[in-house]
């Protein structure tokens, strides 16, 4: 071999060896902005969507919800549900290790449940969904729920990020939250409070070939205008929570694309049939229908949201299980029909009623409250708007701080209306201010019906009931705007603003 | 002098006690933190368990007692949201960023304002004086958060010279420091200029000139030391304002300091943390005022004797 051919050979060999690696090389640092500093990177303590999104890359659960909202295997390869729907036996994936080297086994599921249901956690209720978690052998685990639970697998998928038992036992929850360890696509590197969180690709990730970037950095940028500027300069690649105006300002900016989608959140006016609602005209279903006909939700969307929201048909909304666009139409704006209904109910000249409003609690909510007041004045109903600070508005059970009606919203992270139905209509819940046994029975039935098709039919039944005898004035479902650098591909935020970044790449 | 120091110190302690009482009750006027922390659909039992765990079920007066007792011993409690973290630790992590920004803003203000005010004041009506007056007016009328946005659009988005947010070395310090220091600079220019206007007519300046001393020497030997007194007292106030008043600027520039921490703590209804930050900033402000007053006494011998 001559001196000249040796380097050439080495070069050729190197090229040959690295080529397959380059095919899915993990390159670049993806920079994602967060609108607030996460309270915790331990999922049960991740207080809000922002904190959850920053935590998710570190963990995996037993199952995963894919883009089509179907439940897929993740750290469990298969599972069986008992006939009575209260017992799940999961077969776990073998050969998975945590970022600290601990193997993932059935004991990890037990530790996850035990640490998650600690009462110091914000979301202990997600772990209380299980009565008992037992390791049958290293790779088989049995989870028992107190009663059949239609959304148990969904809860499992979105909140049970698996934690390593030995490490958790050694350091405790507080320290774990400072140095979190999971099996996820990225592992924790460092965090500067209020500033940034750095993660790096997990080289041993069980989804082979993923993640697609070498590093992931979250930057805390509380001001939306600054996020807008920073995505234009290329300092961040994904800027979320922009206003419609800001998104429109980006229309002609090169290098940045606007992503918009309907948020799984229902805005509504609640009626009370407890407390301040007792003895008011609201007790008559015709009055509640009249208020729905008399509320100009279309005008509100056009004038206050620049058309960037959808009128709300009910509590089962676009993207939810059981939603049917033909079946579920919003109340039309029909003041004449409203006045006719009021007359039938014995209020031809209208009446006076109070409505609580969480001042600045949601985007444009103050304007919405005042627009409703004007709209309902048109059918003779005089609404006294009571603005409250958000904290006092939500302080009292059953919205006790305000009068007979109140403006609020419920989101759902599971692709079904169940959480908002349960939270707003199930007697005994903190915020339930409209108590009706028919609603409660139907919600119970939905919650315990494990079959998806059957559940979908029940949701439609629920919709009918809540339209004929409305417990709410249905308002709107907002559009979310985000700006994404055109270097990013594979970014698919879900309707509850959650995202999974292992499929995202950067060119 | 000794009596003066004792009196000012006692006043400061009383003021601090007042702050402690006010902060505790004002924070609690805003409602129940548990409602904002525990998810809306959590069962009642979880809500109550959390309330008990955080000591929020105790009567208000009992909570107040233990809070005062702890505060006296320098214990500012633990955060409701960042569970398991001591408030003082959270504050100490954020403090360097705020101090850095405050000093940079102050340096910017002084370096621009004092020479400009001095030059303007020495030659009233001249071109440089007109500049000084315009800068003074601009500083005092342009709101800092608006200026911040404007700086970001110009220097980060359009020109691409400086980062738009964050804390990444010196280049990221420039825009927030200018935005934060701008108002103080305006005030300082006007103050320096008017103080110079007063002093330059004083007998000792006229005497110095009569001795044949030249312009610059007069400025530095005789005018500046006497102008320094009002400037120092205003700087003290400015600095405390920069520490406590940087909330907007820190939020706009995503600067990880005490201001943005306070903003998020208020939004999260993290009562203990809001209390701790407010107490910390108040203590700081009161100490600075005390120091400024004492320094004032050193700079102005007339005060020591009275």
Report on the structure:
The complex is a heterodimer of chains A (507) and B (306). Chain A is of the alpha+beta class and 507 residues long. Chain A folds into 2 domains: 3-12 and 24-217, Periplasmic binding protein-like II (D-Maltodextrin-Binding Protein, domain 2), CATH 3.40.190.10; 265-478, Dipeptide-binding Protein, domain 3. Helices cover 32% and strands 23% of the residues of chain A. Chain A has helices at 5-23, 49-55, 106-116, 124-127, 152-159, 165-178, 224-233, 244-249, 285-294, 297-304, 335-344, 365-377, 390-393, 418-425, 437-448, 452-468, and strands at residues 29-34, 63-65, 71-73, 76-81, 87-92, 132-137, 140-144, 186-192, 196-201, 215-220, 238-242, 256-262, 265-271, 309-311, 352-358, 382-388, 405-411, 472-485, 488-489, 505-506. Residues 15-23 of chain A have low confidence and may be disordered. Chain B has 306 residues and is mostly helical. Chain B has a domain at 93-260: MetI-like fold. Chain B has 14 helices and no strands. The relative contact order of chain B is 0.14. The model of chain B has no long low-confidence stretch (mean pLDDT 85). Classes of the chains: A alpha+beta (507), B mainly alpha (306). Chains A and B meet through α6, α7, α13 and α14 of A and α2, α3, α5, α7 and α12 of B.
Tell me the layout of helices and strands:
The complex is a heterodimer of chains A (507) and B (306).
Chain A: H1 5-23, E1 29-34, H2 49-55, E2 63-65, E3 71-73, E4 76-81, E5 87-92, H3 106-116, H4 124-127, E6 132-137, E7 140-144, H5 152-159, H6 165-178, E8 186-192, E9 196-201, E10 215-220, H7 224-233, E11 238-242, H8 244-249, E12 256-262, E13 265-271, H9 285-294, H10 297-304, E14 309-311, H11 335-344, E15 352-358, H12 365-377, E16 382-388, H13 390-393, E17 405-411, H14 418-425, H15 437-448, H16 452-468, E18 472-485, E19 488-489, E20 505-506
Parallel strand pairs in A: 1-10, 15-16, 15-17
Antiparallel strand pairs in A: 2-3, 4-5, 5-7, 6-7, 8-9, 9-10, 11-18, 12-18, 13-17, 13-18, 14-18, 19-20
Chain B: H1 2-28, H2 33-37, H3 44-53, H4 60-72, H5 87-122, H6 127-141, H7 144-158, H8 171-199, H9 203-210, H10 215-244, H11 247-252, H12 258-267, H13 271-299, H14 301-305
Helix pairs in contact in B: 1-13, 5-6, 5-8, 5-10, 6-8, 7-8, 8-10, 9-10, 10-13, 12-13
């Amino acid at each position: 071999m001559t001196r000249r051919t040796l380097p050439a050979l080495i070069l050729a060999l190197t090229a040959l060896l690295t080529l397959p690696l380059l095919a899915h090389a993990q390159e670049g640092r993806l920079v994602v902005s967060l609108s607030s500093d996460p309270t915790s990177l331990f999922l049960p303590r991740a207080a809000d969507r922002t904190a959850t999104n920053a935590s998710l890359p570190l963990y995996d659960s037993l199952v995963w919800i894919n883009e089509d909202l179907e439940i897929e295997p993740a750290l469990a390869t298969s599972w069986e549900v008992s006939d009575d729907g209260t017992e799940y036996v999961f077969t776990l994936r073998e050969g998975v290790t945590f970022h600290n080297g601990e193997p993932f086994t059935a004991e990890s599921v037990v530790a996850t449940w035990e640490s998650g249901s600690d009462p110091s956690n914000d979301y202990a209720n997600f772990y209380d969904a299980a009565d008992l978690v037992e390791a049958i052998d290293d790779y088989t685990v049995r989870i028992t729920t107190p009663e059949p639970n239609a959304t148990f697998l969904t809860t499992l998928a979105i909140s049970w990020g698996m934690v390593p038992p030995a490490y958790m036992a050694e350091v405790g929850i507080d320290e774990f939250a400072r140095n979190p360890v999971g099996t996820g696509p990225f592992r924790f590197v460092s965090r500067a409070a209020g500033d940034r969180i750095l993660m790096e690709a997990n080289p041993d990730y069980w989804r082979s070939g993923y993640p697609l970037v070498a590093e992931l950095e979250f930057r805390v940028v509380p001001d939306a205008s600054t996020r807008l500027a920073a995505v234009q300069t290329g300092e961040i690649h994904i800027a979320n929570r922009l206003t419609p105006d800001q998104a429109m300002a980006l229309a002609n900016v090169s290098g940045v694309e606007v992503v918009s989608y309907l948020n799984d959140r229902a805005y509504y006016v609640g009626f009370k049939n407890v407390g301040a609602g007792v003895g008011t005209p609201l007790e008559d279903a015709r009055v509640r229908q009249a208020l729905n006909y008399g509320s100009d939700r279309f005008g509100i969307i056009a004038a206050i949201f620049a058309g960037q929201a959808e009128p709300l048909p009910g509590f089962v909304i676009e993207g939810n299980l059981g939603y049917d666009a033909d079946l579920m139409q919003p109340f039309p704006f029909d003041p004449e029909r409203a006045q006719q209904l009021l007359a039938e109910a014995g209020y031809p000249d209208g009446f006076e009623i109070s409505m609580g409003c969480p001042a600045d609690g949601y985007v444009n909510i103050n304007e919405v409250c005042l627009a409703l007041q004007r709209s309902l004045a048109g059918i003779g109903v005089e609404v006294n708007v009571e603005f409250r600070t958000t904290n006092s508005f939500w302080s009292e059970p059953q919205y006790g701080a305000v009068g007979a009606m109140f403006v609020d919203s419920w989101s759902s992270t599971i692709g079904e209306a169940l959480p908002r139905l349960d939270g707003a209509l199930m007697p005994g819940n903190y915020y339930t201010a409209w108590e009706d046994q028919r609603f409660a029975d139907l919600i119970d039935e939905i919650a315990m019906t494990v079959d998806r098709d059957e559940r979908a039919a029940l949701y439609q039944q629920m919709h009918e009931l809540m339209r004929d005898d409305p417990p709410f004035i249905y308002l709107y479902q907002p559009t979310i705007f985000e700006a994404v650098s055109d270097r990013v591909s594979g970014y698919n935020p879900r309707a509850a603003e959650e995202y999974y970044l292992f499929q995202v790449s950067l060119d | 002098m000794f009596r003066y120091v004792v009196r000012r110190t006692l006043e400061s302690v009383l003021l601090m006690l007042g702050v402690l009482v006010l902060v505790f009750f004002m924070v609690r006027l805003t409602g129940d933190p548990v409602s904002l922390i525990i998810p809306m659909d959590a069962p009642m039992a979880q809500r109550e368990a959390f309330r008990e765990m955080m000591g929020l079920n105790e009567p208000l007066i009992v909570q107040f007692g233990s809070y005062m007792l702890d505060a006296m011993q320098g214990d500012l409690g633990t955060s409701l949201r960042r569970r398991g973290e001591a408030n003082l630790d959270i504050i100490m992590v954020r403090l360097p960023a705020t101090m850095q920004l405050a000093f940079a803003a102050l340096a910017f203000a002084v370096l621009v304002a004092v020479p400009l005010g001095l030059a303007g004041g020495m030659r009233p009506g001249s071109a440089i004086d007109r500049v000084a007056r315009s800068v003074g007016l601009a500083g005092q009328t342009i709101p800092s958060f608006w200026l911040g946005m404007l700086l970001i659009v110009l220097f980060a988005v359009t020109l691409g010279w400086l980062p738009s947010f964050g804390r990444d070395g010196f280049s990221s310090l420039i825009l927030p420091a200018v935005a934060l220091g701008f108002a103080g600079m305006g005030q300082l220019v006007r103050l320096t200029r008017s103080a110079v206007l007063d002093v330059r007519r004083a007998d000792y300046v006229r005497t110095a000139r009569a001795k044949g001393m030249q312009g610059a020497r007069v400025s530095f030997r005789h005018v500046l030391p006497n102008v320094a007194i009002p400037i120092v007292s205003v700087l003290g106030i400015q600095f405390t304002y920069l520490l406590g008043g940087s909330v907007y600027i820190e939020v706009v520039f995503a600067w990880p300091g005490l201001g943005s921490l306070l903003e998020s703590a208020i939004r999260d209804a993290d009562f203990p943390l809001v209390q701790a930050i407010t107490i910390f900033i108040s203590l700081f402000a009161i100490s600075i005022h005390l120091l400024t007053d004492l320094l004032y006494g050193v700079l102005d011998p007339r005060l020591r004797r009275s």
